[in-house]
From TrEMBL, chain A:
InterPro entries, alphabetized: AAA+_ATPase, ABC1_TM_dom, ABC1_TM_sf, ABC_transporter-like_ATP-bd, ABC_transporter-like_CS, P-loop_NTPase, Type_1_exporter
Keyword ATP-binding included in the entry's annotation: yes
Annotated ranges, domain ABC transporter: 348-582
TM ranges: 28-48, 68-87, 142-164, 170-188, 253-276
PROSITE patterns the record matches: ABC_TM1F, ABC_TRANSPORTER_1, ABC_TRANSPORTER_2
Source organism (scientific name): Thermaerobacillus caldiproteolyticus
Keywords, sorted A to Z: ATP-binding, Membrane, Nucleotide-binding, Transmembrane, Transmembrane helix, Transport
Membrane topology field: Multi-pass membrane protein
Name of protein: ATP-binding cassette subfamily B protein
One Gene Ontology CC term in the entry: plasma membrane
Domain ABC transmembrane type-1: from-to ranges: 29-314
TrEMBL record, chain B:
InterPro entries xrefs: AAA+_ATPase, ABC1_TM_dom, ABC1_TM_sf, ABC_transporter-like_ATP-bd, ABC_transporter-like_CS, P-loop_NTPase, Type_1_exporter
Residue runs in coiled coils: none
Listed PANTHER family: ATP-BINDING CASSETTE SUB-FAMILY B MEMBER 10, MITOCHONDRIAL (PTHR43394:SF1), ATP-DEPENDENT PERMEASE MDL1, MITOCHONDRIAL (PTHR43394)
Classification via CDD domains: ABC_6TM_TmrB_like
Subcellular location: Cell membrane
Matching Pfam families: ABC_membrane, ABC_tran
Lineage: Bacteria, Bacillati, Bacillota, Bacilli, Bacillales
Keywords from the UniProt entry: ATP-binding, Cell membrane, Membrane, Nucleotide-binding, Transmembrane, Transmembrane helix, Transport
Name assigned to this protein: ATP-binding cassette subfamily B protein
Domain (ABC transporter): residue spans on this chain: 338-571
Amino acid sequence: MDKLLTPKEQRQVLWRLLSYIKGYKTEALVAFILLIFATAGELIGPYLVKVFIDDYLTPRRLEARPLLWIAGAYLGVLVAKTVITYFQLVKFQELALNIIQLLRIDVFTKVHQLGMRYFDQTPGGSIVSRVTNDTEAIQDMFVSVLSSFVQNGVFVIGIFIAMFLLNVQLALYCLFILPVILWIMKLYRHYSPIFYKEMRERLSELNAKLNESLQGMAIIQVFRQEKRLRQEFAMINDKHYEAGMKNIKIDGLLLRPAIDVVYILSIIVVLSFFGISAMESPVEIGVLYAFVNYLERFFEPVTQMMMRLSLYQQAIVSGARVFALLDHTELAPGAAEERGTTISKGTIEFRNVSFSYDGKRDVLKHISFIAKPGETVALVGHTGSGKSSIINLLMRFYEFDRGDILIDGVSIRHYSNEELRKNIGLVLQDPFLFYGTIEENIRMYNRDLTNKDIVEAARFVQADEFIKKLPQQYRHQVVERGATFSSGQRQLIAFARTIAMNPKILVLDEATANIDTETEEAIQEALANMRKGRTTIAIAHRLSTIQDADQILVLHRGEIVERGTHQELLAQKGLYYKMYLLQNGLTDVEEYV
Amino acid sequence: MKVFKDLMWFFYQEKKAYITGIILLIIVALLEMVPPKVIGIIIDHIKNGTMTKAYLGQWIGILLIIAIALYGLRYLWRILIFGSAVKLSRQLRNELYAHFTKMSSSFYQRKRIGDLMAHVTNDLQAIQQTAGNGILTLVDSLMLGSFVLIAMAFTISWKLTLISLIPMPFMALATSHYGTLLHKRFLKAQEAFSSLNDKVQESISGMKVIKTFGYELEDVESFRRQSNKVVSKNMDVAKIDALFDPTISFIVGLSFFLAVVFGAKMVLAGELTIGQLVSFTTYLGILIWPMLAFGWLFNIVERGRASYDRVRSLLSEQEEIQEVENAISTPPIGDIVYDIRQFTYPNETAPVLQHISFTLKRGQTLGLVGKTGTGKTTLLKLLIREFDQYDGQIRFAGHEISQYKRNALRASIGYVPQDHFLFSATVRENIAFACPEASEDKIIEAAKLASVHEDIEQFTDGYDTIVGERGVSLSGGQKQRISIARALLMNPEVLILDDSLSAVDAKTEERILSALKENRAGKTTIIASHRLSAVQHADLILVLDNGQIAQMGTHETLMNERGWYRDMYYRQQLESLVEHGG
């Protein structure tokens, strides 16, 4: 998905990243002012030495008072500069971290606004890496690249100002440094990304090859292709080596060694200038000292700036990816404008609903049914028959366009999301448990629930019993998605979570996983309790669990092919009857085939 | 420094590059001593009014030559030393890869691919650093450091050198102290970052739950808290990190101060010229790098050692499946006889297979059926010698399979695994995986046999379509059939289909099976399957239960027995009815 960015796109990404500074104007200003002071402090030292050499040492004027002043000033400035530099560096870091924080929250908020469709299409890992790794790369840019460019840039300008103050003519001569350095930088900026990118690409090729080989090692071995793959790997490895060597060469030609040549050239200019002037008239040696000293400090920041360029490229690529996510338009179905429509009774009606995920193939065709308040409607059918899609639409995970879904006679589009979430409790097939305690998993983010409510909810769904046996009971820590609990126990916790909200409508997606018989009983009892007095839509995999449903809809390929009560459907001897036979012993099967 | 000793074999192997590189580094260090000296000399000439054009020209000429020489030498040692370091990582990477290809399944059960990848990327990176920057910092801190000291002490003033160096040890102490602190805080920051990662991962996996309860805003709030923690831990790092520069420049500033104050005294006392004083301060500036390099060196070496130890322990993993001496190198052709009393996976206690005895005559078809996890795949994996530690024997063409060279044995077997793994390559390359030089006709023939030719023709690039992780996504059935074609192209003596038809529909399954029957007359075929229809025509069917043979016979005999086979047969008939809507 990473196509090459044009220079214009790169600039757009950069500007958009920079626009995040706007929220931190004051902090940025403070950091910048500290930087100016620190730079000034850095430059005053050599100047004081110059004054000392020219005004006191050379003429041998040894008055104690002014000398003490100079020494005191030097040490004072040294201490002040040290302290200011420290705070300046911290401030710039803080600024960068805060900006990234802002961006991160933006991205995460956006993720929550996206519709389920986006999550179906995008692997979870890549979304996670947008929120964390890519923002981390951008953080590197803010921390290392931008702050070092500003800091080093200010320092370079400061040095020139100081040189101009000392000797305009010589400073003018020294200006030759700038075009030379800029030219080297331009060369480096031109060539380095090419080689750097090649190396990164070779590296990711290497890693891809290695990863794939490790995954498919059994195949490689059984087909005796070890030798061939070793050769293939060695070939990519060679290319990576060559790319690495090119990088070393380009860095060797244009980084430190080149900058150092410019340094010696600049020293030559200064020495020649003074040497030639000295033949005509005496010169100030202190000025010479100061120039040499300034030049010595000039070049390290320049090298630093150049070395950071590759981080900049990375950050822009990451930035482009993050912004692509932020600009994504596939949002979750929107909430209604008008507020105040409330759910009172809990009648659910599907009116001729058809739906397609991809716009081509309908997974639901003309679905119509009514669930009256307190009734249970069960959905049964083979995998892919459309059961889950019905729930996805009812829960507003996906927007539908044909037909309508009504609650208490009003289209669900006209309810606020809050009203729907408050009144519809969904228990998922995979009862996802979050990191935290059992109590937190039942409470979720609902602060209105008292501890008593939580225990009551757990008791209501028969979860209380096993929770009480845990060492820390409700404070028991849930590890790695509840891996230490049986799937039945996880299910019960999820029930408690839903029942604690006391919803008017219950949507159940029954677990397919095998559940131990002990918990199974608890679950059946809990389900029966939960359904009492609530309109319930239930997906059932085990037909035994929904025999008492008021209405059973048998789905096949998106259509309701049979409907009725358990007894009615059995009497029809159709699809439901066959499914029932499959699950309940095979005594009658043979005659059927 | 132990890592340098451990890497000695490599330094020895690349001794030319390293010796030349180090000599160049030393020359560079020596040349660096000259410019400060020249500055001092010229200043003294200026001060004493003895400057002439000839003098100036001479010294400037020297500086120019040094500039050019430094440029060339610096470039060269980089190529020699850094280049060798890259060579080392290439060499180790190849070695690791070759080693991985020799490791058997039990190795891959013990190790996670992610960890192995991390060794090859991060650890090699650290080792490369040691062989490159490690050498550089070692040479520079020792050589350049002592040259500067010698130049200051012997050509200018040893007294002034001692005085102005007083603050320097504090720099080394302070930076090494910061280094330790920084490392600790950095680990904390990384921890915070990784829990942020987990938080995001969890939110995305639990997205439906969050949406169900309408807790989007609350979740963002919880993310904000976690993210704030990351900021504060990173600020802790920044607070230490920001100490480095000010501390260094403070200490250097003090050194300069001492140098100028005491140097000036000596100038006045006539012990020193002004030019020498300026040279001296310039030398002080040069001394900063060797000091820093010294601290850095320990850092690099420490990391390099840990990494190198990890890589070495990986490379020392023994091959588990050993070949016997004088192993048979002709691929076996003939009957297969299983006689296994028991097999248990390494590091496990419960046996997976028990009392498995049967004979499969050459040219027959064997069907393996039974519940998931009853040992069907394990039974097959023993035949291709993925595991060796079983009690009993498996004979192929009259010899125990351990008597054959692994390559010879595997040359007789075409294996289609359960998890149809395809490589990120073209369809053609995937089918020709075992015989890369196979002709187009042969490849198409194999694809036709596996009933996947027509599917492939439908792809945009036909046989040149890239598949696998980074290619177009195929349906499970298509992947399975390509895997089958891959094994068929070998025209193997024994073809093993390990539940490899699960994702193709009944009609296609039938077509493939009858094509196989025709094409593989006289050759042995083993089919493990959930669907009984796949083994219905086998000469011998084994029903496995819990690692043991529960039933054995042909379809006809098994249908006449009460048992799992007959029950399952009817059940599957009914299931297919339900699938088709009754």
